[in-house]
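[step 3/7] inverse_fold.run input=structure_tokens len=244
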């Protein structure tokens, strides 16, 4: 295993895939800022990871501009740069509300506020710190559920998941942001990618996932530690490229 003295921020890292991502980055020697909206849960999670490396709680609610600004200043003061930004925080609402034709707009707005606007707000706030790093990496947690090519495939594989329109379209937007940022940053060392972590047993799906979130975290860490000749503006999972 290689060790590094780099710094990473993982949003929504008090549990699930974010927690396991924080653990794996800490084990590689990263100083990990463990973002959590609740101080009690965040401090407890950072304590749980203390044996894995240098893990520090930072209060961060991705829907709250003041919280994001305070976290940015906190990390800028202590770390100076940010080598890796993992936009992991996410929610899935409206499973009982059916498809697009019946889903309440309020459900869609709430989902977008965390999954898409949260990712956008955090990225905009932290990009100046990522640009200061030698080889910045931004990883956006997307999902194959947000893949338009899968949605429109003749066999419609997404239908088998009991498609949640709000969640799926929020992830489509996340992937769109990945593409736009990658183009904007193409002449810089910063790489921006979307990943799908597979189907993990977490609170988000009532622990129905088929793999432990430590498995899902592996592809996130892979994207966070891409070499200089690695891709940017890509969407991939553990098996390779995912259709946009
Ligand atoms: N699980 C899967 O199979 C799967 C598949 C594809 C993609 N993903 C994506 O992977 C990411 C992690 O999901 P997960 O399965 O690990 O879910 P999870 O266990 O429910 O964790 C979600 C995390 O996001 C945090 N969060 C929610 N709203 C937030 C906000 N406003 N500000 C900051 N943090 C917030 C949660 O914090 P609280 O504890 O405070 O609620 C929690 O730490 C999500 O983006 C999800 O869409 C998951």
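[step 3/7] decode complete -> sequence:
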């Amino acid at each position: 295993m290689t060790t590094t003295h780099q710094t990473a921020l993982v949003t929504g890292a008090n549990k699930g895939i974010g927690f396991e991502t924080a653990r794996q980055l800490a084990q590689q020697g990263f100083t990990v800022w463990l973002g959590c909206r609740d101080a009690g849960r965040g401090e407890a999670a950072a304590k749980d990871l203390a044996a894995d490396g240098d893990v520090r709680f930072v209060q961060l609610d991705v829907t709250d501009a003041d919280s994001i600004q305070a976290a940015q200043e906190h990390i800028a003061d202590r770390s100076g740069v940010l080598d890796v930004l993992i936009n992991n925080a996410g929610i899935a609402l409206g499973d009982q509300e059916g498809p697009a034709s019946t889903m309440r707009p309020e459900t869609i707005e709430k989902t977008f506020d965390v999954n898409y606007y949260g990712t956008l707000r955090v990225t905009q706030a932290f990009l100046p710190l990522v640009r200061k790093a030698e080889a910045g990496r931004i990883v956006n947690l997307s999902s194959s559920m947000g893949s338009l090519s899968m949605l429109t495939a003749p066999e419609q594989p997404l239908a088998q998941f009991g498609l949640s329109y709000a969640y799926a379209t929020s992830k489509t937007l996340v992937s769109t942001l990945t593409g736009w940022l990658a183009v904007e940053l193409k002449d810089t060392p910063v790489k921006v990618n979307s990943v799908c972590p597979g189907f993990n047993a977490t609170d988000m799906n009532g622990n129905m996932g088929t793999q432990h979130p430590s498995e899902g975290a592996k592809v996130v860490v892979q994207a966070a530690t891409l070499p200089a000749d690695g891709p940017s503006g890509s969407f991939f999972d553990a098996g390779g490229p995912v259709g946009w």
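[step 4/7] annotate
The beta strands are 7-10, 31-36, 55-59, 84-87, 137-141, 191-195, 235-237, 240-241.
The two ends are 32 Å apart (CA to CA).
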